[in-house]
Amino acid sequence: GGSVPLLRVTTVYRPSDAMKPLFRARGATDGRAFLDEAQVLAILEAHVAAVSAGGGAEGGGGGQSSHSAWALDPLLSDALFRGGEAAKDPQAGAASMPPKEVRRRFLKRLEQWTRVSGGALEKPMHARGEPPKVVLTTEQRRGHSVTCVAELAAYSIDPYTAARELAGVCGATANVEEEALKSGVQKRVVSVQGLWDRSITEWLAAKHGLPPSCVENRAAAMKGPGHAQKKEKKATNVRRA
């Protein structure tokens, strides 16, 4: 069939409560909007420039490269230090700080989210912190190794299509196993005969754009032989998208 567009996985941010007054002062009034790193840093730098132009720090606004330190006005100080562990930081209450340090702390204080878009998703998905994971496990059944791929539904990847494609990629039998959960939901797991965790991870990246950060390979984490795919055992027909 036609190729599905690749998934895009990016880190996006929202201001924490202590940071919202600074964002509002710069016109970013929707505290629930997701912003990327460049947008967040642009808000920070616009704020520093405005404070500087207002006579807070010496020199005109904008020429940040000439400042070895940025003045921490009350809004910026709150954004960096108000509430939680940060309030105990020895730097809390400092009047100024090097720009690089301000940027680092500012990013760290934001709420971090993972945005997943594209692929077969109807609309972008946002997860607080880490993204959901596709889970790879291996097990022995009647003396044979089987690799199982669970949680494909998190990324709207169709398990039946996946089984068909993985059978070709791995040159092995692949099936979809259905399991009814207590909630009444059908959980579908793709099982492939043999140890194929590495080839499947590569296929998820090449075919779907799913980075390794979205795959939990429990097979590779297990110690001892017989759990994970050997390095030299390569699926020759994994095509890069």
Task: Give a topology summary.
Elements: E1 7-14, H1 20-25, H2 37-53, E2 70-71, H3 74-81, E3 96-97, H4 99-109, E4 111-118, E5 125-128, E6 134-141, E7 144-150, H5 159-170, E8 174-180, E9 186-193, H6 197-208, E10 215-217, H7 218-221
Parallel strand pairs: 6-10
Antiparallel strand pairs: 1-4, 2-3, 4-5, 6-7, 7-9, 8-9
Tags for this entry?
241 residues, alpha+beta, Translation Initiation Factor Eif1, 2 domains, elongated
Poorly predicted runs of 5 or more residues: 56-66
Residue share in β-strands: 15-25%
Termini gap: 14 Å
Tally of separate helices: 7
The counted number of beta strands is 10
Q: Calculate the mean pLDDT score and round it.
A: 87
Quaternary structure type: single chain
Strand order of the largest sheet: 8-9-7-6-10
Structural class: alpha+beta
The radius of gyration computed from the alpha-carbon positions, rounded to a whole number of angstroms, is: 24 Å
Largest sheet: 5 strands, mixed
Shape: elongated
- The H/E string reads EHHEHEHEEEEHEEHEH
Total of domains: 2
- Helix percent reads 25-40%
Protein name: SUI1 domain-containing protein
Biased composition (Basic residues): 228-241
InterPro entries: EIF2D, SUI1, SUI1_dom_sf
GO molecular function: translation initiation factor activity
